Amino acid sequence: MDTTNGGSVDVGVGPLAFDQVVAVARHGARVTLTDEALKAIAVARAYVDELAARPTPAYGISTGFGALATRHIHEDLRAKLQLNIVRSHAAGSGPEVEAEVVRAMMLLRLSTLATGRTGVRPVTAETLAALLNAGITPIVYEYGSLGCSGDLAPLSHVALALIGEGEVRDADGRLRPAAEALAEAGIEPLRLVAKEGLALLNGTDGMLGMLALAIEDLRGLLKAADVAAAMSVEAQLGTDRVFAADLQELRPHPGQGVSAANLRALLADSAIMESHRGPHCNRVQDAYSLRCSPQVHGAARDTLDHAALVASRELASAIDNPVVLPDGRVESNGNFHGAPVAYVLDFLAIPVADVASISERRSDRMLDVARSHGLPAFLADDPGVDSGHMIAQYTQAGIVSELKRLAVPASVDSIPSSAMQEDHVSMGWSGARKLRRAVDGLTRVIAIEILTAARALDLRAPLRPGPATGAVVTALRSRVPAPGPDRYLAPEIAAAVDLVRDGSLVAAAESVTGPLA
C-alpha cells in the first residue's frame, strides 16, 4: 500500500470526518496524533495507574472479563491478563477481511484512544499510528464478531499485531509474521499493561468503518443511478415532464427533489427528447420504473442521510468499557453495544436492493420489442443470430435477487454468549459485511444499465442524446466498443463496472451539468 500520497490526517480528541476515514482506509493517508490527544491520553493513564494500585477491584484492570469478572486478579498477573485477552479473543475464522476495512478499524480505534477515555499509555496509541503509517495491515477474518462488547475478535487480531504476534500484510501486500514486519519497519512491539488489552478490543470500529466506507460509495452510486435512469428514459423515448420542479415540490422529500433536479440537468438539450414532443406524442405516462425514479432514488438518499447522521454521532463517541471520565472515575457502561450502527447498516441494505431492482426493470424494458418503442429485440445487431444484451439482464436479475436476500436484517438476531453475561448482541458486524456485498452488487447492476442504455442511445442514431448523457456514452466508448454483432460481453461489463466504481461516468456527466447532488 502506498502510504505517501494519500495526504495526512490529524487524530485528536475530537471526532474524525468521513473523508478522513476514507483517506486513511482507502488512500493510505498518514496519521498524526495531536499534542492535545497525547496529553489527554497521559492524564487518563494516570487515573488508571492510581486505581490499579488500590485494593478495590476494578473491572478490566484488576478483574477478569465478561462472565469471569468476579475474579480479582493479583498485581503480578495483570500484564498476563491483558496479554491473554488479546491472544484468546483473536479467534476469528474464514476469509481475510479487506485491507481498507482493517485500516478503517485501526484508525477508529486510534481515534477513541485519542479521546483520553480508555486509559491506555501514549505509547500504545503511537504504536497503532505507526502501524497505519507503515502500511502494516493485520490479518482479520470474516467471522468472530457479534457486534457487542464491540467487534471483539476483529479488533483482537489488530491488537495481536501490536504485540508482535499473528500475521499481517506489509505495505506491498505480502503476508508476513507480524514480528518480522514490525522489526523491518522499526516498530517496537507493545508490552501491554493494566487495562490496555481490553481498551484495544472494546469498540464498534469494524462495523463503523464499514458503514463510513459504504456511505462514501453510496453517495457516488446514487448519482450514477440518476445518470443511468436519465439514459434509460432518453433511450426509451420517455417523458421528462414528470421531473418538473413544481411537481416534485408537491411531495417535499429532500432526496426526491435532488434526484429530479439531477434528471432534469442530465436530460437538458437532448435531441432525442425533443424528437417526440408536441401534439402527436402519445407518451403521457411512462412505466413506474422510469416515471418514479426520483421517488425511489430520493428515498434512498434520505435513508443514506439518516445513516450518515448516525455514523457521525458514532464518530464522535468514545467506545470502551470501562471508560475513564474527566473527574478520574473509571466506570462500566454499555456503550459498546452496536445497535445504533447495526440498525442503519441493515436499513441501508433495503434501498440498495430497491435501487438495483428499479435499475434492472429499466434495463429490461430496453430489451423487449413490445416496450422499447422501436429498438431491436435485445438490442441485438441481427436478432435471432445475435442475442445482444439478453444475458446481461440475466446477470442483473441474479444480482438483484441476491440483494433482496442481503436486505434481510442481521440486527433482529441475537445469540447469547459469555455464559449469558453477554445475553443480547447486535450482529452489527454481520450487517456491515452483507452491506459491503450489497454495495458491490448495486455497482454492477447500475453499470449494466448504463452499458445497455448507451447501446440503445447509439441505436437511436441519427438522433443524438443530450450533451450530458452523450458525454457518458463517449466516456464508456473509451473502454467499450459501439454496438455491433455479438462479442464476448463479460469484459465489457467489467469495464463498465470499473467506470462506475471509480466515478468516471458520473464525472463525464458532470463535465456538462456541473456537480450533481
Explain this structure.
Helix 9 (205-235) packs across helix 11 (254-267), helix 9 (205-235) runs antiparallel to helix 14 and helix 18 (467-477) runs antiparallel to helix 20 (504-513). The protein has 20 helices and nine strands. With 517 residues, it is mainly alpha-helical. The strands form four sheets. It has a three-stranded antiparallel beta sheet with strand order 4-6-7. A two-stranded parallel sheet has the order 1-2. Strands 3-5 form a two-stranded antiparallel ribbon. Strand 1, helix 1 and strand 2 (30-33) form a beta-alpha-beta unit. The chain has helices at residues 18-27, 35-52, 78-89, 99-114, 122-134, 152-162, 178-185, 196-201, 205-235, 245-248, 254-267, 271-274, 288-291, 293-315, 339-367, 390-406, 428-459, 467-477, 490-501, 504-513, and strands spanning 8-11, 30-33, 93-96, 137-138, 141-143, 167-169, 175-177, 323-324, 330-331. The mean pLDDT is 94. Helix content is 55%, strand content 5%. InterPro entries: Aromatic_Lyase, Fumarase/histidase_N, HutH, L-Aspartase-like, Phe/His_NH3-lyase_AS.
